[in-house]
Amino acid sequence: MRTPAAAIHAYLRAKDGNKPHLMAKAFCQHAMLSMQVNTSAISFPPLSRGREAITEVLVRRFGQNYDNVYTFCLTQPPRPAVAEFSCNWLVAMTDQGSGEVRVGCGRYDWRFAAASGLAERLDIAVEVMAVLSPEVAPRVLDWVSVLPYPWCSTAEAIAGAAIVGVAPVMTWLVFNDASPSPSGRPRHPSYEELENEKAVAVSDATGRCTVIQSRRSGGGQGHGRGGGGDGEEGRRVPEEERQGQGAGRV
């Protein structure tokens, strides 16, 4: 019997590396995939039934359109006995046709079969997908290629992300970061916990580092590597950042 962590890893290797044969190590034959896409920058069918249909959507067709794919689960691996597991994810990839870079994030909700340990259901939410010019591909790929794969903390992912255009993605991850509970489901931080955070750095549209600090810590928002405080305005995100538009392909 496979462990949930091994099944998730097999799925990511299959999708990121365009290896359809690995999906048999990730999903039950009659598994179900649901997709909730909350951005116009990429598209997927809302429902796929059966391992072959899931493989067609997430591996074969995906691999026809994107390469240099890196997908990270932003948490620790699940325990061997869990039946359900949820986590945030981060992806970076290049469009084979245009050369554009896509950096996105969202949430996985997994359910595993008790007998085999394979996934019997996967719900994927795509929350933010930034579309960047081909010129930034080397910087993006240099960033993601040195992150721990496939299990990576949000803090590790954000630390090297001072790249033009990724602030909407990083901001979503910061304010939706969650530590897994013993059951495998994430424990979302409360408002008070967010208020007590020290600081989080994301990039703005100029490529500089924006520091978002806790109001309780007395900090504000600063630009560059330092930063003066704006007091109660400390959580503001740069207005000039825009989520990438234009329909993506599957």
Overall mean pLDDT stands at 79
Main sheet overview: 6 strands, mixed
CATH class of the domain at 4-161: Alpha Beta
Low-confidence parts: 180-184, 186-248
SSE run? HEEHEEEEHHHEEHEEE
User: What overall form do the CA principal axes indicate?
Assistant: globular
Instruction: Determine the strand fraction and express it as a percent band.
Output: 25-35%
Q: Which secondary-structure class do the elements indicate?
A: alpha+beta
SS elements, strand count? 11
The CATH architecture of the domain at 4-161 comes to Roll
The span between the termini is 32 Å
- Give me the number of helical elements: 6
For this structure, the CATH topology of the domain at 4-161 is Nuclear Transport Factor 2, Chain: A
Strand order of the largest sheet: 2-1-6-5-4-3
Give helix % range.
Answer: 10-25%
Cα radius of gyration in angstroms: 18 Å
Q: Based on the structure, what is the oligomeric state of the protein chains?
A: single chain
Explain how this protein is built.
- Mean pLDDT is 79; it is low at 180-184 and 186-248.
- Helix content is 23%, strand content 30%.
- The chain contains six helices and eleven strands.
- The chain has a six-stranded mixed sheet with strand order 2-1-6-5-4-3, sandwiched between helices. Strands 9-10-11 form a three-stranded antiparallel sheet. Strands 7-8 form a two-stranded antiparallel sheet.
- It starts with a helix and ends in a 27-residue tail after the last strand.
- The chain has a domain at 4-161: Nuclear Transport Factor 2, Chain: A, CATH 3.10.450.50.
- The protein has helices at residues 4-17, 51-65, 137-144, 154-159, 167-175, 191-195; strands at residues 27-37, 47-49, 66-73, 84-95, 101-112, 119-132, 179-180, 186-187, 199-203, 209-213, 222-223.
- By secondary structure, the protein is α+β, with helices and mostly antiparallel strands.
